[in-house]
Amino acid sequence: MKPSHFLLAFCLLVSLVVITKAVVAPKSGRTSFSVKESDNSYQISATYDPDKTRKVQHYLDEYLTRSGDASFKNAQIDATMTLNDKTIFYIKSSPGNLLIKFDKKRNPEKALGRFKKLAEKLRELLTDK
């Protein structure tokens, strides 16, 4: 094999490895957090370092699950949940991703306040502020 062919093959291999790592690697250090509110709904959406998933699950357990409502630990969830106090919400959770949708019309205002506080605490947890 000519040296120029070897060099070209080596460069292609290195490029392929770098591109694969960039696409497949978890998005460490990249955090996005948003809250959207309308007349009918309140939504929390977050993408974060998958290494923080246990912290998020632990916090959701602490904040939302009272009296054994449910557990978010070690779980990937895509469900509508009803807590013991009759609060109803949709949650989709997997390592590095969280989506919570809260229907204002189906829940009391007190529960909305609880979810707003949850959003504040999650933002602090995920952005380390």
TrEMBL record:
It comes from Larkinella rosea. This is DUF3568 family protein. The keyword Signal applies. Keywords: Signal. Residues 1-22 form the signal peptide.
